[in-house]
Amino acid sequence: MPQLDTYTFFSQVFWLIIIFASFYILILNNVLPNIARVLKLRRKQITAGEGSVISEEHKAVMDATSGVLEASLKDSTTFLSTVRNSSSEWLTASLNEANEKTLLELNKTYLKNIGELKGQSFLINDIIKQK
Fold first, then answer.
1. C-beta neighbour count of 45 within 10 angstroms
2. According to the 3-state scheme, what is the secondary structure of the chain?
3. Which of 1, 70, 106, 130 has its CA 20 to 30 A from that of 124?
4. Residues near 46 by Cβ (< 8 Å), separated by ≥ 6?
5. pTM higher than 0.85
6. What is the residue extent of each domain of the chain?
7. Please, are residues 46 and 54 in contact by the beta-carbon 8 Å criterion?
């Protein structure tokens, strides 16, 4: 198996260490100071009595979020009612068209055949009663 080849094993470990170390240094020097700075700022704002600023910011974010959710709910409700109405109209039109074109002729043929069968059975019953 190539990953267990002893000739390339040292180079794989070497590059793993180099990449891991560079990634670690990058995180340590760039990302962690930014996160620490933000956390310190938040902690200072809360302890300095500026909790009202954070609560106002929280309220503004919540108001914006609820506004967006209400608008999207209204839009989706309108869209769904439009789809329901148009599909209901399409279904009614399709049923009427099917009844007028296909089923009307089938119903006429069905009633004609039922009438003929009833007439035949009536005639047969009359003939049997006469004998």
1. 15
2. CHHHCHHHHHHHHHHHHHHHHHHHHHHHHHHHHHHHHHHHHHHHHHHCCCHHHHHHHHHHHHHHHHHHHHHHHHHHHHHHHHHHHHHHHHHHHHHHHHHHHHHHHHHHHHHHHHHHHHHHHHHHHHHHHHC
3. 106
4. 54
5. no
6. 8-48
7. yes
